Amino acid sequence: MNKFVSAKNMIDKAKAGKYAVAHFNINNLEWTRSILEVAQETKSSVILGVSEGAIKYMGGFNTVVSMTLALLNDLNITIPVALHLDHGQSVDSCKKALDAGFSSVMFDGSHLDFNENIKGTKEVVTYAKKKNASVEAEAGTIGGEEDGVIGSGEIASEEDCKSLAALGIDFLAAGINNIHGKYPKNWDGLNFDVLKNLSVASNKPMVLHGGSGIPKDQVKKAINLGISKINVNTELQEVFAAVIEKYVTEGKLNEYKGFDPRKIFKPGMEAIKLKAKELLTEFGSLGKS
Ligand code: 13P
Fold this sequence. Notes:
Blueprint: H1 8-17, E1 21-25, H2 29-41, E2 46-51, H3 52-58, H4 61-74, E3 81-88, H5 91-100, E4 104-107, H6 114-130, E5 134-139, E6 144-146, E7 149-151, H7 158-165, E8 171-174, H8 192-202, E9 206-208, H9 216-224, E10 227-232, H10 234-249, H11 261-283
Parallel strand pairs: 1-2, 1-10, 2-3, 3-4, 4-5, 5-8, 8-9, 9-10
Antiparallel strand pairs: 6-7
Helix pairs in contact: 2-4, 2-11, 5-6, 7-8, 10-11
Bound molecules: 1,3-dihydroxyacetonephosphate.
Cofactor: Zn(2+)
Organism: Spiroplasma ixodetis
Protein name: Class II fructose-1,6-bisphosphate aldolase
């Protein structure tokens, strides 16, 4: 039987090879299947990221693990795949994910007092290590809103990154002027000086949240400065929604059996695969497994 793997090895390899592993957020079965298929077709290691909101939407931790694991096996997926809790808001949430079978978790203590962030991260690291699972921590905050989690976007400090890295985490997310969701027209861009300093200070692979819609040259530069995992959600949601809109406005719902959900979602799944392949290429992780 095929199993999920910790994200540590794939991300360490990416750091050494100067590319970034794609973390694609999943929202349902169609999403998961599309991502797994494109990753397998292109022989690229991949991380399935699941937010607490998406877990709730799909039914719970066990549903997510059972569904994704069954797809891994039914679709004969042989490339390394990590199942990762995205923005775990509490120690309890991370433990529930790990107990259910997630192979990687993010403890996002950015909304807490820093001492509490340290305490929670430490507890999650101890718990995760017993299960050979990887841990992502967060320093500073990432701007924007994701599944009701609102961050004002606070640039991380070198001291905080060092303290979190010392707890034995595997990779680190840090606020470098990145934002979840769409970037506003007047966005200043990523703060590369900060990224460079934090990457050196932490000596850990760095994670770029809010990976949707960042100009290609900035993505490339960020990877060169230590970004080894890039999280994408909005961009795939946008391409999915756009083709469904087209399906509806072209009157396809009224064609023979056009109301069948399998017909409605088919172009959406194709759009996800196309965009995911484009991003794997951009991140340099196409064919890296
Ligand atoms: P986007 O929705 O902006 O792509 O961000 C995704 C993300 O960072 C998930 O953690």
